[in-house]
Amino acid sequence: DDLQRTVANQANIFYAFEDLERAMTLIKESERICRQLGDLRGVSINLGNQAGIWHARRDFERAISSLKQQAQICRQLGEIELLATSLGNQAVILLELGEVDEAMVLLKEQEGICKKLGDVQGLAFSLANRAQALNRARRAREALPLAEEAHRLAASHGYAALARQFEPMLNAVRQSAQGQ
């Protein structure tokens, strides 16, 4: 258990310094240790970390595969907070690939989980991602209420930095909606 934590911490350091090769090696070692210990939550976290590296390397197929495995484990364990994050991460990659409909299904599920948990920040991100997806699909009028709600949630719940982060997206959706 201590060895696994040490290996995971080292992986995080390498990741922070953008040494993705060493980070991946250590994350896989951490996953192996978690599997030996029967720590499925640890396995799922390592799969999510691997997905982050695959995504950074633009290897979307492996990133999605890791995230799907992570989601399966989260469902098995009832880890719905981690599941919501995994679904959102899958959706972001799918949006990059232009798979709007598939991403929207995942974002709707993420939204439901965030509402159930009372996770305002997660809900705001999910709504913002859905708004961006709809806007890219030239459905800005559908996107606008979602973008406004994401911004409102962030601003009214003490996430000022997040609200500012959403402003360019909100303005772009508003501009697109006016043109439709």
Structure description:
This protein is an all-alpha fold and 180 residues long. The protein contains nine helices and no strands. The chain has helices at residues 2-16, 20-37, 40-56, 60-77, 80-96, 100-117, 120-136, 140-156, 160-179. Helix 1 runs antiparallel to helix 2, helix 5 (80-96) runs antiparallel to helix 6 (100-117) and helix 6 runs antiparallel to helix 7. The mean pLDDT is 92.
Judged by helices, strands and strand pairing, the structural class is mainly alpha
The fraction of residues assigned to DSSP E strands is under 5%
Name the poorly predicted regions: none
Largest sheet: none
* Outline type: elongated
Helix tally equals 9
Order of helices and strands: HHHHHHHHH
Subunit organisation of the chains: single chain
Rg, rounded, reads 18 Å
What is the total tally of β strands?
0
First-last Cα distance: 56 Å
Helix content: over 70%
Overall pLDDT metric? 92
Q: What tags apply to this protein structure?
A:
mainly alpha, 180 residues, elongated
Summarize the structure in short.
The chain contains nine helices and no strands. The protein is mainly alpha-helical and 180 residues long.
Strand and helix map with partners:
Blueprint: H1 2-16, H2 20-37, H3 40-56, H4 60-77, H5 80-96, H6 100-117, H7 120-136, H8 140-156, H9 160-179
Helix pairs in contact: 1-2, 2-3, 3-4, 4-5, 5-6, 5-7, 6-7, 7-8, 7-9, 8-9
